[in-house]
Amino acid sequence: MIAAVDLATVWAFIIAFAVFVYVVMDGFDLGLGMLFPLFPAKADRDVIMNTVAPVWDGNETWLVLGGGGLMAAFPLAYAVLMPALYTPMIAMLIGLVFRGVAFEFRWRTTAARNRWDIAFAAGSLLATLAQGIALGAILQGVRVEARHYAGGWWDWLTSFSLLTGVALVIGYCLLGATWLILKTEGALRDKAYRASWVLLFAMLAAIALVSIATPFLNIQYAQRWFAWPGIILAAPVPLAVAAVTALLMRSLAAKQDSRPFLLTLAFFALSYAGLGISMYPYIVPQSITIWQAAAPQNSQIFMLVGVAGLLPLILGYTGWAYWVFRGKVRAGSGYH
User: Fold this and answer.
1) In order of start, what are the domains of the chain with their CATH numbers?
2) Terminal alpha carbon distance of the chain
3) I need a surface site. Which of 40, 97, 130, 334 has the fewest CB within 10 A?
4) Is 66 helix (H, G, I), strand (E, B) or coil?
5) What values do phi and psi take at 227, rounded to 5?
6) Bridge partners, 288 (sequence order)
7) CA-CA distances (angstroms) from residue 141 to 210, 217, 256?
8) Distance (Å, rounded) from C-alpha 17 to C-alpha 298?
């Protein structure tokens, strides 16, 4: 029965799901780090940190699952993409290390707290930029010859990859601002509302620019978006983005604390769906499909058995953590 299933497609969806969950769950705390300069008061920064203290490190479980799953299920794609993305990946890891160390150390010192706050903000910015640039580098395609990466060290650095990097920075900041709306109150929440309006319009501009630029990267992208039958899947995406925009603007105007964050998650889901429409069935765009990159079937089945037990466990404890620490965070309470 398992053998009759298209295992490569199943694994593609598992990895795509893990990456998406990482993006939305680690995205808002990276966004909070980048928003730190907007909240110079120590009390506000302490509250901001306490909104994510119970969950921030667990969010990166999904990054490990996505990266490890790619290496195990699609070893050829991993072997091609990693040499193409060494620089942004190393930069991302450095940023995540700085952010993690700063998160813990800022509570342990008073004199050097501003330095750790700077490290937290800078690490968040570096990690986010690196992730966005890596996404752009993958989308624009990498040179492959004889099943090996054939490009140069700096091929990842283009105007398009920088655009996607900036777009992800804006998107994560919007996630962070709407998370603050959900988790805080008073003047801090009001400031997050004001920031969300600015970031919403910036994100719409970023989505528009990336959407306009993507079809010009490769004729196959244009065919998937504008030619039959791909247009059947692609056409609803901009309509859904318009609908979510209207709902988000309405919820911000009405100051509905819970809805802005959920609607921002919908933005990311729609953008992710557009990415999937553009790339599928390629895992290395225009070069290697998911079937060409897939590990042997026996290996995929063996790993699938493990993931079938692991994935519900991760979802369960993650959901439990968010449930236990639900509600507003107030000054003077939380992590110390």
Assistant:
1) 8-324 (1.20.1630)
2) 52
3) 40
4) helix
5) -105, 155
6) 284
7) 15, 8, 41
8) 22
Strand partners, 145: 148
CB atoms within 10 A of CB 27: 24
Q: How far apart are CA 319 and CA 249, in angstroms?
A: 28
Six-digit token pair at 218? 């490769």
Q: Which amino acid is at 138?
A: I
